[in-house]
Amino acid sequence: MTTPFTRTLIALAALAMAAPTAAFAGAAAAGDNEVKRMNSFGGACPKCELSGRKMAGAHFIGANFAGAAMVGSDLREAHFVASTFADANLSRADLTDSEIVGANFTGANLSFARLRSTEARAVTFSNADLHRADFSDAEVSGSVFKGADVHDASFRSAELRGANFTRADAHGADFKDAGMVGALLASGDFHGASFRSADLSRAVLIGGAFDGADFKDADLGGAVITGVDLSRARGLEQSQIDEACSDSRTRLPNGLISRGCGVRMIRYPGPPPHIELHVRPPPPAPPAAPAPPAPRYLIAQH
Fold it and tell me: How many helices (H) and strands (E) does the chain have?
């Protein structure tokens, strides 16, 4: 049976463990617009109201802020490590130069958020609202944007190595000069997106809509393109297609030819180089099988 004294001890222990989070909640309740910097914030503060707060340089480590409201908050140079912000509202928040590692922003609202020069490695943005978000010059390698709304978002000069954009709505998104080596663009909406001078080497493009997408000077070396309609894409040249691996279901602009996955054209400036072929002689024929031994007869004497 729990006594009042025991319940008091339990409450005090819980308060001590949640002290960093309580500082946030207390500041929010008191209407304090500036949350004092602390080394780290852990524990849980789901659905906390922290909109418009100044939390530059804050550390969120193993914290749970699911459903929290941080609309327009100042989170510049903040650190988010293994923390959950699922379904949180960070629209118009400023996360410039922040560090986000292994955090979960599934279903979060980051529309119009500023994430310039942010390091966001292995972060989950699945089904998040990121339209008009600014990821310019950000490091977003290995992050997941499955089903996310990134239309009209800017990823200009961002590093997106191995990023997953499966079923993403990225129409009108700006990927100019982005590093997208090994990225997955599957069954998404990329119409009107810009991939100008982007590095899409070894990227995988499966299905999806690319009407009006701009691939001028994009690197498609080793990219796998299967079942993609690129017939209305802009800026594509035969030399780019020659460096990629495309299948018969891929549709290309008029005049371009898919080379398939087993053929790669190598173009040399000027006349073709002189090539000498050295053919090795065939190996010697194997020796003939030895003749079978002569039969032996046993002779019995009477």
Answer: 3, 8
Burial class (CB in 10 A: 0-12, 13-18, 19+), 226: middle
From 46, 63, 39, 139, select the one nearest 95 (Cα to Cα): 139
> 10 Å Cβ neighbour count for 238?
15
Q: Which two tokens stand for residue 25?
A: 């909640």
pLDDT tens digits, one per residue of 256-298: 998 777 544 434 344 444 434 344 454 555 555 555 454 443 3
| Cα separation, 208 vs 186, whole angstroms | 6
Q: How far apart are CA 267 and CA 129, in angstroms?
A: 43
DSSP 78-127: -EEES-B-TT-B-TT-B-TT-EEES-B-TT-B-TT-B-TT-EEES-B-TT
The answer to whether the beta carbons of residues 84 and 64 sit under 8 Å apart is: yes
d(CA 290, CA 129): 79
Read off the pLDDT of residues 223-245 as tens digits, 9 standing for 90 and up.
999 999 999 999 999 999 999 99
Alpha carbons 65 and 50: distance in angstroms, whole number = 10
Please give the model's pTM, rounded to 2 decimal places: 0.76
Residues ≥6 apart with Cβ < 8 Å to 70: 50, 51, 53, 88, 89, 90, 93
> Cβ of 291: how many Cβ atoms within 10 Å?
6
End-to-end CA distance of the chain: 112
What tokens does 35 get? 């949350």
